[in-house]
Amino acid sequence: MAGIRLLPEDSDVSQQVRAVALSDLVSDDDRSVAADSWSIKSEYGSTLDDDQRHADAAEALSNANLRAPSDYSSDKDEPDSEAVTSMLGFQSYWDAAYAEELTNFREHGHSGEVWFGADVMEVVASWTKALCVDISQGRIPNHVDDVKTEDGELGDKLLSSWSVLDIGTGNGLLLQELAKQGFSDLTGTDYSESAISLAQSLSERDGFSNIKFLVDDVLETKLEQEFRLVTDKGTLDAIGLHPDGPVKKMMYWDSVSRLVAPGGILVVTSCNSTKDELIQEVESFNQRKIAAAQELEAAKDEESCKEPIFRYVSHVRTYPTFMFGGSVGSRVATVAFLRK
Ligand SMILES: C[S@@+](CC[C@H](N)C(=O)[O-])C[C@H]1O[C@@H](n2cnc3c(N)ncnc32)[C@H](O)[C@@H]1O
């Protein structure tokens, strides 16, 4: 792990969140325990200081740094016993969290947590738009920070051919932000039914009822469609926090490689992996796929395909950076990969 993340100050709540980290849980059968742990967080007053509670959960997500990239780049099947896991890796956590957010929405009209903050969400959406416009115009950029966004009709016309899937969409607000940027073919999936109900309610309230939402587990996706743009903000992070995180991450890459259309892009936003760690993870996935293809081709005595499935294209360079331990780093990384 690169060790360049800003370490947030400890709070009582985050200590309790860590105290209930589920490192000793090994299967989804134990999810009920994870659900119980949610009640510990809920004790923060019947008044429920949502902002504080969610800030603490976000802190837990970013604090639960996993492991050196070399660990998950190996082919071992066994979960790393030293890996730091958390209740945020369990579906029961998200079911409880979004059930509560749904209640808060119905009772108070609250939109709920914007993971990594509204600023990051806006940057992800506008940066992704610039990248897609660039690709539509035949430019595969090394970076797009300086690219002028095509506003108005041309931009909208170019974006209309981009089908978008946001995996682990939560409240679906990133899709609303992408709609504001001009994307029109938008779908969000999440394995939590409450998240999908919340996302649907919010999109209707906010005038984005054209966005489609479906309950779907990305690791066992039922979607047969391919999308030209797939986005992930915080979902890979959450998946990696399950005790079987390394195995689940391999399943994630397999699944996502089927969801992104050839020539399409995947944009991952993470607070748990640096840009280099995400690239390393993709490289490991590419290597695994190439080795598997070679084995298959060798059996058939044919030429094997050595082309990587995903190729790094660009990353956001404009997030605020922090100095920590002599290194400069950013708390959030957004990286785009091009699908072969
Ligand atoms: C950190 S939250 C981020 C939510 C949303 N992307 C956002 O930025 O607000 C992680 C999300 O991933 C979802 N999730 C985790 N594992 C998933 C899986 N295997 N399939 C689908 N959704 C998943 C959770 O339900 C949760 O909504």
UniProtKB/TrEMBL annotation:
User: Which Gene Ontology cellular component terms are annotated?
Assistant: cytoplasm
Keyword Repeat assigned? no
Q: Where is the Methyltransferase domain?
A: 162-287
Q: Which residues form a coiled coil?
A: 275-302
User: Key word S-adenosyl-L-methionine present in the record?
Assistant: yes
Task: Look up the EC number in the record and give it.
Answer: 2.1.1.-
Provide this UniProt record's keywords sorted from A to Z.
Coiled coil, Cytoplasm, Methyltransferase, S-adenosyl-L-methionine, Transferase
Which enzyme class? transferase
Q: What Pfam families does UniProt report for this protein, alphabetically?
A: Methyltransf_31 (PF13847)
Compartment(s): Cytoplasm
GO MF terms listed in the record are: protein-lysine N-methyltransferase activity
Alphabetical list of InterPro entries matching this protein: Efm4/METTL10, Methyltranfer_dom, SAM-dependent_MTases_sf
Gene Ontology biological-process annotations: methylation
- Which PANTHER family does the annotation name? EEF1A LYSINE METHYLTRANSFERASE 2, PROTEIN-LYSINE N-METHYLTRANSFERASE METTL10
Q: HAMAP family from the xrefs?
A: Methyltr_EFM4
Protein task: S-adenosyl-L-methionine-dependent protein-lysine N-methyltransferase that methylates elongation factor 1-alpha.
Q: Which family does it belong to?
A: Belongs to the class I-like SAM-binding methyltransferase superfamily. EFM4 family.
Query: Under what name is this protein listed?
Result: Protein-lysine N-methyltransferase RJT34_18663
Q: Which organism is it from?
A: Clitoria ternatea (Butterfly pea)
